[in-house]
Design a protein that fits this description.
By secondary structure, the chain is an alpha/beta fold. It has helices at about 10-20, 30-45, 60-65, 95-125, 145-165, 185-190, 195-200, 210-220, and strands spanning about 25-30, 50, 75-80, 125-130, 170-175, 230.
């Protein structure tokens, strides 16, 4: 199961796991895009089930999971990818609405999906949760305040879950991408395409496929190997705040 599968890292994961021969449950808010992706992947022989809901809506998420067909209920891998950044202002000038959306999606949405899916993994004594965190979760950068805090929470929640399931064969991975060229910046700047494009000028950024490659690797590691955390940066990125542009 991959949340936020309609674009960026989520879409990259859908395609890479499909190429790996896996059956896919894809979730997202945009039903039409989900259908288009489903058609693309099924044309190549992948079994796909789509669920259109917003991870911020706990009732909708619960309803979707509880009504899964019997053949799709034993989820082996959960990729908690749904997330976003909104705004890039000093904390004292931030938007309440942007804060709430980030917290509800990046933290509470991840928790909702974890709570709904992981009990089944523990009961079956197998499974893997892959959380898409960020380099921003390691240290704050200028004007990133609340977004950085949400990704710091993803790291802490991943670490806590890993401890909680250590008596089982369930594995937990936190992937921490750096600069990835998706619609992330366009979303952050509320559709300001020119401002978003400037984020990637002068550096070759990562792609959603790059992060998906790591996710597939972690999911297919031997059963006794748990890839707990991976930081993935563009070559000319030293940290969340150090980017060398040429």
């Amino acid at each position: 199961m991959i949340t936020g599968a309609t674009s960026g890292i989520g879409l990259g994961c859908a395609r890479k796991f499909a190429a790996n021969g896996d059956r896919l449950i894809l979730t997202g808010r945009r039903a039409q895009l989900l259908e288009e992706i489903c058609q693309e992947l099924t044309a190549n022989g992948t079994e796909v089930l789509t669920l259109s809901f917003d991870v911020r809506d706990r009732e909708a998420a619960t309803r979707a999971i509880n009504t899964l067909p019997e053949a799709w209920r034993n989820i082996d891998v959960l990729v908690n990818n749904a997330g976003l950044a909104l705004g890039l202002e000093p904390e004292y000038e931030g938007s309440f609405e942007d804060w709430e959306t980030m917290i509800d999606t990046n933290i509470k949405g991840l928790l909702t999906m974890t709570r709904l899916i992981v009990p089944g993994m523990v009961a079956r004594d197998r499974g893997h949760i892959i959380n898409i965190g960020s380099v921003a979760g390691d240290a704050a950068y200028a004007n990133g305040n609340v977004y950085c805090a949400t990704k710091s929470a993803v790291k802490t929640l991943s670490d806590g879950l890993r401890i909680d399931v250590a008596n089982s064969a369930v594995r937990v991975t936190n992937l921490k991408p750096g600069l990835v060229e998706t619609n992330f910046s366009n979303t952050r700047f509320h559709g300001d395409t020119e401002r978003a494009a400037n984020v990637y000028k002068g550096i070759k950024p990562l792609t959603g496929d790059d992060i998906a490659d790591v996710a597939v690797y972690a999911a297919n590691a031997p059963a006794h190997v748990q890839i707990a955390e991976v930081l993935i940066l563009a070559t000319h990125q030293g940290s969340g705040s150090v980017i060398v542009r040429k």
